Amino acid sequence: MTFNFASTGAYVPREILSNDDLSKVVETNHEWIIERTGIAQRHITDGENTSDLAYQAALIALNKANLSVQEVDAILVATFTADSYTPSTACLVADKLKCRNNVLAYDINAACSGFIYACETAIALLATKRYKNIVVIGAEVISKLLDYTDRNTCILFGDGAGAVVLRAEGTSTLDYSMCYRMEDTKHSLYAKGVQLTNPKYSEAITNQHIIMDGKAVFAFAIDAIHQCIRDWQTSTGSTLDEIDYVVLHQANDRITSHIAKQYKLNSSKIIRYVEEVGNTSSASIPMGLDYLSRKGQLLPNKKILMIGFGGGLTYGAMAITL
Ligand code: UT7
Fold this sequence. Notes:
- By secondary structure, this protein is α/β, with parallel strands linked by helices.
- Helices cover about 30% and strands about 25% of the residues.
- Strands 1, 4, 5, 6, 7, 10, 11 and 12 form an 8-stranded mixed sheet that branches.
- Helix 3 crosses helix 4.
- The longest helix has 23 residues, at about 215-235.
- The chain is globular, with a radius of gyration of 19 Å.
- Oxa(dethia)-CoA binds near residues 251 and 310.
């Protein structure tokens, strides 16, 4: 399958929440957070919602691709922090961009693997030849789901958005893609929605905060990444030597370090940018691609392996050649 990987964009809210800021609201400190996660700060919204961040990232990517909004055929937003149950974040982004009416717009929720799932879907849409220009966005305002008294989660996550424009005709290739889910038997990562209510007898109990068993998720993440790499190697016969950039979901820098060490990936090959933005869930991989683009590294023929993992439990890998 060939396509055109046209451009990237990224956007974060202005407000920064430093580790020192967090140490004033919860029992933690900069040294612990940096050592255990590699995160120095994260951006949090001061009023913009997920669709606003998604819109800004999409606009940057569309401008970079020199593509008019009238040419956009589909908008896919990977998010688990949509503005509302309905309309979808993708519909709100289409409104803000002033897209045509006959644009396919919908959200995909696969938590931190969402961008891989959304790209898988976008490339399948391109293959139909009915969709020529697709904006794929990963966007999250996770701060609205955080309990700022829970030091296990509030130190980790940040808000942000990343976008890519994928076009039908081009010389980029999809070399491999695989999406997975498995039962979260330990209930290690979840954020509940609104509880079921029955006006006759139930009281609504709503706790929508993210609850995470960090150690269990850490162990799952390592296993998931190993499985992704193993399955990609078995299926394609490729090796990591052939890959120019590995873009892992940026959950915790210790996960990235561990994988870098295990596979002997030097620092120019494995992308690390969690320090400035924290864990931005489905936004993290497209923000990583934009990070490479801003450094002038997204050049023709470069091979990229992306791996996401997170709530669901979900995980997935995609390898492309630009
Ligand atoms: O994006 C979705 C996927 N998510 C992930 O991949 C997250 C994976 N998990 C993690 O990133 C890590 O498990 C955390 C950063 C959440 C926690 O790090 P950890 O190294 O697993 O810490 P821990 O929970 O084992 O706690 C170690 C110690 C404990 O103290 P004791 O019992 O050893 O005295 C904790 O109470 O550190 C303490 N601790 C803290 N201290 C200061 C836990 N959180 C903090 C904190 N500040 N924020």
